[in-house]
């Protein structure tokens, strides 16, 4: 699920009695500005969050969403835009997309809220054709969180539309929000935490120097810990998972090295370490002397960040977040 940040405001709307419609991109063809799974939510009084096209197709979707709120009936919308009309309709270079619009009701919200808050991997399935149009379920391998389907269990590996015995089924993976753990509460960390929150990441700041780890310095952080990072990891105070990015910024081997070594014990999304090439080579040599295999510490990205000739703390923070996004999206660029 791309737009998990929508779940909280949609819940707030429902709590104050607003009626809400949710639009989701279920298929795209050609050049489309948003991927499958992109979402837009709208209330009956025209509060809007999210986007399905990054252009004026959103306007048409909003109009249909308001009708869905009035009628309580879900619908699918298809937009086919030729190259000559593409720019005026928000589809650069031409493209097509199909959007499913549904009433967003409280029971569905409770399921999504539970899954996103508890960082549960799940699968959201919606029938797009036939007598059970708009019936849906949210499931994991072990549990059913929401289910109004009357068919046998569907389970597919990829997000998108599949055909099964004449039924068109949209499947969307719900994965935990990316978590960014920053070790070393310096100026770069302050900017990086703020940038990461604009990307809806969970941000955790760790530094054993308590004077640096304060809410005043890090108002955007979700977690603040004045601990040694490796001890926070080993004790479970700070959880690590496959969707976690770890960055060490203290520039102090006493703080950074144990954190990096602890991070290497987990299959993390990203591990990066601040420092020059010389600093990084010295770090790797320390690890060799400790008997750490090259295949393990090769996962550490250093010098951290994409190569954008960054110098200011804000520029370094931008390069780090850009590299994390690149790795997350499969671009696998090595920084410097």
What does this structure look like?
By secondary structure, this protein is of the alpha/beta class. 31% of the residues lie in helices and 26% in strands. The protein is built from 10 helices and 16 strands. It has helices at residues 7-15, 57-71, 83-86, 106-117, 187-198, 229-235, 253-264, 277-289, 294-297, 313-328, and strands spanning 20-30, 39-43, 48-50, 75-81, 95-104, 122-127, 136-139, 144-147, 160-164, 167-174, 179-183, 202-206, 223-225, 244-248, 270-273, 300-301. The protein has a 6-stranded parallel sheet, with helices on both faces. Helix 5 links the parallel strand 11 and strand 12. The longest helix has 16 residues, at 313-328. The protein is elongated.
Strand order of the largest sheet: 13-12-11-14-15-16
**Helix/strand structural class:** alpha/beta
Query: Could you describe the largest sheet, including whether it forms a barrel?
Result: 6 strands, parallel
Helix content: 25-40%
Keywords:
about 325 residues, alpha/beta, 16 strands, elongated
Topology record:
Blueprint: H1 7-15, E1 20-30, E2 39-43, E3 48-50, H2 57-71, E4 75-81, H3 83-86, E5 95-104, H4 106-117, E6 122-127, E7 136-139, E8 144-147, E9 160-164, E10 167-174, E11 179-183, H5 187-198, E12 202-206, E13 223-225, H6 229-235, E14 244-248, H7 253-264, E15 270-273, H8 277-289, H9 294-297, E16 300-301, H10 313-328
Parallel strand pairs: 11-12, 11-14, 12-13, 14-15, 15-16
Antiparallel strand pairs: 1-2, 1-5, 2-3, 4-5, 6-7, 6-10, 7-8, 9-10
Helix pairs in contact: 1-4, 5-10, 6-7
